[in-house]
Amino acid sequence: MDSPEESRELCQKAGYTFTFLSDPKVETIRRYDLVHAGAGEHGRDIARPAEFLLDSSGTVRWVNLTENYLVRARPEQILEAAKALR
Amino acid sequence: MKLQKFNWQIWAGFLLTLAAAFSYTLVFVWWPVTRDFPWVNLLLFGFAMVLLFVGVRRAFASGRGWISKIVSSLLAILGVGILSLFIFGAFIAARRLPASHGAPQIGQKAPDFSLADTNSKVMSLSELLSTPINGATPKGVVLIFYRGYW
Q: How far B53 CA lies from chain A's nearest CA (Å)?
């Protein structure tokens, strides 16, 4: 939900090279039913943490909807799930 | 004026309480093993509480002034307050998440979207799934939704 400019700053500081998209109107987050209403700074709507692995047809093959936002999917878990994609 | 020995336990306990609280977001959040369950911070809090307890007991020992008793009590109360806030944040607030029953499940198609990347170039999910990387079609896409700020 950050703007592209805010995200670009974050990516440059952190050295991220993957595609980083912005959803400032919280539209995609809403479509995926991941809105965490009012949980952001100044009561902004933000996303609740979630990770999805899609295959080449766009079908979900693995999901992680954490019950605790301190706990996120670890890279090894996603890579393990990705191995199953052919 | 009678000089009493410095009650280092109460001050060490209080400083350790601050360190236990702040070190989570400053240090231990960087490794999953210390972030997923804040066991190091809880250990530090444990030591801090022991020091605070010893410090308060010492302050209330005979021969110590009333200022010592008040300051120690305040530091101990603050320390317990900080620990309570930490426990609330890490174990209660962190679990207050929406159910998200409508989120795409295994076997469902993920909804397409078109969003701007960091260079304000619009990318769609269908593009990400089909644009070749190093000459090969992608085997899939990982979508990561983060909270927006920690």
A: 30
